[in-house]
Specification:
Blueprint: H1 3-11, E1 18-22, H2 26-41, H3 46-49, E2 50-54, H4 60-68, E3 77-82, H5 93-104, E4 113-119, H6 127-130, E5 137-140, H7 147-161, H8 167-177, H9 181-195, H10 203-209, H11 219-226, H12 230-242, H13 247-265, H14 274-286, H15 289-309, H16 314-326
Parallel strand pairs: 1-4, 1-5, 2-3, 3-4
């Protein structure tokens, strides 16, 4: 099931007893979870009817307890189980056994607790993953794999926001931002603000609001960071900012790059020309798994800072991040 199919089901009032939200695109996972939360919890008290658990920080028995708890002043309650970072944070052993048992007993329409498991990467051959067959569901939250899928996301996102995009405007968004979905969401919002409420967003609006930040223009920056050339990386960042590149767009490109390094470091294949894949493999060897996790956390902190949670300005926050990633 794709996220759009999930949204259509929820709009019809259909709720399943369990969902597995799996894929490398965090925006799609977060959107799917938000939609399920809204459908399950509705107007009921969230404090009593929502449990958030993380593998690695609790035992399987805690999940059993949460699923066995009755809802308070509501028809259903929601239990969210996330895979954690590092060793011991994955669904295996007792967790996998418990999920298989629980899903084997699931029936459509009568559950008082809805289970949602959130994972970045799953092996569809595993029995616990296969257990998310009907009446449960596996929601595939992977980033667009080509121009057509990217164009579909842009069209659906514009429709969700109530924005009318000219075809040329949509095409330019895809070219300049690439498959960075959170940034695409923000850039559509910005273009609509420039055009004015209810007005059609044209190519000219996109040209004014969206800097070219797809991966090619910042490859020199990510290359310098990956090679540990700190001074060069800081200089390239300054040039990008001076050329008008938006700080959130640069941050999104860095996040996308380091997510690909994580995938390469885990032995996964990533799309791209051979020379790009080779560079990613070289850079991944420089970053142990623990350091990659630290880099992703640093990127998350920078995202919070760019949204106003820090006295640092956007340029300074990005500079601190680049120093951290390249050091």
């Amino acid at each position: 099931m794709k996220p759009a199919e999930l949204a259509a089901e929820l709009a019809r009032g259909k709720l399943r007893p369990a969902y597995l939200l799996a894929g490398a695109e965090p925006l799609l996972r977060d959107d799917a979870l938000e939609a399920i939360e809204a459908a399950v919890l509705d107007a009921g008290p969230r404090d009593f009817n929502l449990d958030r658990l993380e593998i690695g920080r609790c035992e399987p028995g805690r999940l059993e307890e949460a699923l066995g708890t009755l809802p308070v002043m509501a028809a259903r309650r929601l239990v969210v189980l996330r895979e954690g970072d590092g060793r011991g944070g994955k669904v295996d052993g007792g967790w996998a056994t418990l999920l298989e048992q629980r899903l084997g007993q699931a029936e459509d329409g009568d559950a008082t607790s809805v289970l949602v498991v959130v994972a970045e990467k799953v092996d569809k051959r595993n029995r616990w993953v296969k257990a998310f067959a009907a009446p449960a569901a596996l929601v595939e939250c992977d980033p667009p794999k080509g121009g057509r899928e990217l164009a579909t996301f842009i069209a659906e996102e514009a429709r969700r926001q109530g924005v009318e995009l000219e075809p040329e405007a949509a095409g330019l968004l895809g070219e300049r931002v690439g498959p960075q979905l959170l940034l695409l969401r923000h850039e559509i919002e910005k273009a609509e603000l420039l055009a004015g409420p209810g007005s059609r967003v044209t190519r000219a609006h996109v040209e004014q609001t969206v800097a070219a930040v797809a991966e090619e223009p910042i490859w020199d920056l990510t290359d310098a960071i990956g090679a540990g050339r700190t001074a060069v990386a800081v200089e390239l960042l300054a040039k990008l900012l001076a050329q008008g590149a938006a700080a959130p767009a640069i941050l999104g490109a860095l996040a996308s790059h380091f997510r690909r390094l994580v995938r390469v470091g885990n032995g996964e294949s990533v799309p791209g020309p051979p020379f790009v894949v080779r560079k990613l493999e070289q850079q991944a060897r420089r970053y142990p798994a623990r350091r990659l996790v630290a880099c992703l956390r640093a990127i998350h902190r920078a995202d919070v800072e760019l949204k106003g949670a820090s006295p640092l300005g956007p340029d300074r926050a990005l500079e601190q991040l680049v120093l951290s990633l390249a050091g």
